[in-house]
Amino acid sequence: MNSSVAFYKGDFVPYENAKLHITTHALHYGTSVFEGIRGNWNEKENTLFVFRMKEHFDRLLEGCKMLMMNIPYNSDQLCNITLELLEKNKFKEDVYIRPLAYKSAEVVANLKLQDLESDFALVAVPFGLYIDSTRAINCCTSSWRRIEDTMIPTRSKIGGHYVNSILAKTEATLSGFDEAIFLTESGYVSEGAGENLFLIKDKTIFIPPVSDNNLSGITRDSVIKLIKNELNLDIVERQIRRSEIYLADELFLTGTAAHVTAVGSLDSRPIGSGKVGPITKSIQILYFDCVTGDFKKYINWCTPTNKNL
Ligand SMILES: Cc1ncc(COP(=O)(O)O)c(C=O)c1O
Fold it and tell me: Which of 52, 126, 224, 278 has the highest local Cβ count within 10 Å?
């Protein structure tokens, strides 16, 4: 079923009524901050489990601070609005939840943040796989470099900076690849167009630091915890060169939309066996058990919509 209700201008409204005026500041200048949150349907328990909802709203509010947006809700209130929205839509399938804080002022030619009102909107839509995470995908190194934190803050999901990701993903898919990997201006590996990156070599896991302009991913954080707690493998956070990827044993991407997706090749060079590697596979299994609420040790990462749980 599709969404029937959205949260817009402080109220629950019919989905089709959540519309903005053409002069809205955010539409012209990308002055918005958004999140992508997954709700995963668990048939056995008759509930959606919303994954790490509070952490997503905490990151949204950090982005609001950077863009000088005051929205009248704290993260607990945003969580409650989300649960109410999901209840009103009566979803019984996996959903993608999209909160959006934006400069709602209806103005033209106004290149500043102060003295412009902001608002918050929320929708949720049924959502399956974003990338086919059942196989190892093929990536290319983007000819577009990852924007630097010296240009636009990269550690939040600021609307305007997604033009960078969209250019990279468009180039990759038009050239027959599944996803693009960004390098920083200085040539270090940053992340995918919409995912963080993990490299495996000799049973050690390497990840680029967030200071290499990647998003401080919530899936990245969850996977780091799972690797440390459940697999007892070493994780080294350090700058990574593109050529290290060519010689890696395994590579995978993480993100709310992409889950944990194995990368089978970069720039047409196979990575390891070119298939989903054994460590990536174990992480995929652990992660899926967490997001669906089946791995009870991590159930505090999941908020059920079913009030009886
Ligand atoms: C550019 C970028 N990097 C990384 C991620 C992964 O972040 P998260 O795991 O919080 O969804 C995303 C997705 O939100 C993204 O858009």
Answer: 52
Q: b/e string for 56-86 if b means 16 or more Cβ within 10 A? A: bbebbbebbeebebebebebeebbebbbebb
SS3 147: coil
Residue type, 77: Q
Over the chain (309 residues), the average pLDDT of each successive run of 10 is: 88 97 98 98 97 98 97 98 97 97 97 97 95 94 97 94 98 98 98 98 98 97 98 97 98 98 98 98 98 98 93
Q: Decide: residue 141, CB within 10 A, 0-12 exposed, 13-18 middle, 19+ buried.
A: middle
- Whole-prediction pTM value? 0.97
Contact 270, 264 (CB under 8 A): yes
The domain made up of 137-291 has a fold known as: D-amino Acid Aminotransferase; Chain A, domain 2 (3.20.10)
**The CATH classification of domain 5-126, taken from the options 2.40.50.100, 1.10.10.10, 3.30.470.10, 3.40.640.10:** 3.30.470.10
Partner residues linked to 265 by β-bridges: 138, 270
Determine the angle formed by the axes of helices 75-89 and 53-66, rounding to 10 degrees: 120
Helix (H, G, I), strand (E, B) or coil at 220: helix
User: Ligand 1: which residue has its CA nearest to atom 7?
Assistant: 217
Number of C-beta neighbours around residue 268 at 10 A: 10
The separation between the first and the last C-alpha atoms of the chain, rounded to the nearest angstrom, is: 24
9 Cβ contact partners less than 8 Å away, ≥ 6 residues apart: 119, 121
Tell me if 210 CB under 6 Å of ligand 1: no
Q: For ligand 1, say whether the CB of 196 is within 6 Å of any of its atoms.
A: yes
Catalytic residue positions, numbered: 157
Which residue's CA is the nearest one to ligand 1's atom 6? 255
